[in-house]
Amino acid sequence: MSVEIHSFKTAKKILFGRGTLKQLGEEAKSIGVHRIAVITDPGVEKAGIVDKVIAVLAQEEIDYGLWNQVEPEPALSVGEAAIDFVRDEDYDSVLGLGGGSSLDTAKAAAAAVTNQGRLQDWVKEPFQRPPAPFILIPTTAGTGSEVSNAAVFATPEVKYALYSPLMYPDVALVEPGLTRTLPPSLTAYTGVDALCHALEAYVSLKASPITDILALKAISLVIKNIRSAYKDGKNMDARAGMALAALLAGMAFGNAGTVLGHACGYAYVYPATGLHFPHGYSIGTTMPYVLEYNALANLEKHTTIAELLGESTEGLSLRSSAFRCAVGFKKLLQDLDMPTSLQAVGVTRGMIPSIARNVFRSPKHVARNPRKVTVEGLVELFTKAYDGRLESERKLTS
Ligand SMILES: [Fe+2]
Predict the structure, then answer these.
(1) Which of 115, 150, 179 is the endpoint of a domain?
(2) N or C, which terminus of the chain has less Cβ within 10 Å?
(3) Residues 6 or more apart whose Cβ sits within 8 Å of residue 381
(4) Distance in Å, CA 201 to ligand 1 centroid
(5) Each residue of 140-183: pLDDT tens digit?
């Protein structure tokens, strides 16, 4: 057991479970909410989720206002518009409701209630005062934003990531029932994102005994539930398992960080290729090849991953066992009808050198990766990803 000092941060309070939404009013009052701005997106409103939340606030006689203009992967201007809304209407607190984009926008809005300046200033120099009381309620099982201190504003052209030790929510309220209407494709993409958060946090050089326990539990919960949630969205046991997995994975990567998997997922979409895909989709496509690349750096942990992904390692050497993790991940992608090669998503072989160089646009992810990242190594990784062929599969069939 390591005796190094490890710190761990997360939301100030977490409420998880079916029926937690009923406690929203009580929780809001306990953190001093009088007039709350609900920050969300049109899809969440259309799914009827906003009505459910507002009904609870109204029942508790909490004054609220609705801002429903969050967009997927919001530009800085979306965050600035949300800031104008909370300032113009004198709200004293914020509720973020939706996927990662809505939750991140809500974090910025809560900071704007108590701080001068705008997002563009805070990216250069973070705000100094604690944000107004804020509550985050995820409606997907993937992002983990409800327990992190980051807010990302990213268009295909520009990415701004705002971090602050003050930006953990007062309450993260995770009600699995809110994911019931998520369509199968989004269930798969967001669930794969959560799995990648857990896998990457587990092998990160910043991993600790605390994040390892969370990551391992998250991986096993995803593997137990994601196929069922994808095939039958009304399976509430599977939905609850995925919601818990995403929460635990968020707590793990919120401290240990993600590594090469996320960096590769960012690298092959715009601007390298002009292609643009949902977050979990782009990361999942290259993940088998990232696992294969990283396996040598930590054979024990990659063997554990292989076994959690359902691969048999009986009779295999530690080295061969570790490489089975990549095969297990690829099988999962196939079961979720997701692509397993870059060729299948429209990347060409000629794009590989620029994609490889693009990985270094995520220097923190690269620095935390368990295996040293080189351009040559990445070209080989992306060539395998392009062909959709794992080394371990080749050896098995030759
Ligand atoms: Fe992610």
Answers:
(1) 179
(2) N
(3) 264, 286, 289, 290, 292, 293, 356
(4) 11
(5) 999 999 999 999 998 766 778 899 999 999 999 999 999 999 99
